[in-house]
Amino acid sequence: MTAxxxxxxxxxxxxxxxxxxxxxxxxxxxGIVPGLGVILVGENPASKVYVRNKARACEHVGIYSxxxxxHEDISEEELLNNVDKxxxxxxxxxxxxxxxxxxxxxxxxxxxxxxxxxxxxxxxPINVGKLTTGxxxxxxxxxxxxxxxxxxQGIEIKGKEAVIIGRSNIVGKPVAxxxxxNHATVTICHSRTVDLPKVAKRADILIAAVGKPLLVTDEYxxxxxxxxxxxxxxxxxEDASEELLNWRKDAFEKRGSTLVGxxxxxxxxxxxxxxxxxxxxxxxxTVAMLMKNTLLxxxxxAQVK
Length: 305
Ligand code: NDP
Hints:
The protein has helices at 8-30, 45-61, 76-87, 107-113, 125-133, 141-151, 172-181, 196-200, 242-247, 249-255, 265-268, 282-301; strands at residues 4-5, 35-41, 64-70, 94-97, 161-165, 185-189, 205-208, 226-229, 233-236, 257-260, 274-275. With 305 residues, it is an alpha/beta fold. The mean pLDDT is 97.
């Protein structure tokens, strides 16, 4: 079997187009432009790229976005004041504080200060609670992107055996709840799981959110399974196997490194039914779902269904 390789970029583009037309409708019918406020503290290069991508996506779909750039020495109190200003603004429906924050700042305290009604990342404990009880809320963007990927393949989740490797609060646990609410039978694995390949091989839907390059080989995969690779790992040329060097020759020549997932793509594509690549799989969906959450928030403010 050779897996169908899922094109996350085109799925994300589809979702952005859907959001764009709903944004236009909200503007013309209610005069409301959804607004996203992003707080960026310091000069972390990766954070700057993420924030820029989010701003570009907003521009594309017609969402107003404002990035508040703050110095990395900012005090916790000043940062809280900035969050509070966004909480009180009528033109801002979604608030995002880009992580990681500098060490002197208690990230939890900042994230908890965001109004749950504007928490488009879905990290506030009120929204986490609602996710676990199955109430409608803002679902975290990467997990809800994973659900979109599965559903948009025309795959029914109900009754499927789902195995998630990784139990983080931002990916593993929320995606487990979303799968459960969609009536999958769910197993969550982690670093202490005994005989991981055996457990993983039970899965009709296997999700790897670990952060360990190429951990999931064909030994972990049931023939025909849908395999979603969330991991993002950078491998330097000197650490790459001969096989990887050949496969990603161009990237190694250009940058001396390449991005890989938690799944050994070359091996697993021979056995899985569906497989997401890295890059170009789950990643693009994350930003698209942020657009969807911001639109949802604006619609709630406007009391539109
Ligand atoms: P965390 O480090 O928070 O969690 C990793 C999880 O993997 C933990 O639960 C850990 O277990 C488990 N784990 C570690 N080693 C093993 C192992 N050998 N076998 C089984 N389980 C193991 O990571 P995140 O959830 O934040 O992220 C996971 C990956 O996804 C990262 O590569 C990250 O970059 C990527 N990511 C991608 C996103 C995207 O948009 N595409 C968004 C968010 C993350 P334990 O709890 O026991 O320590």
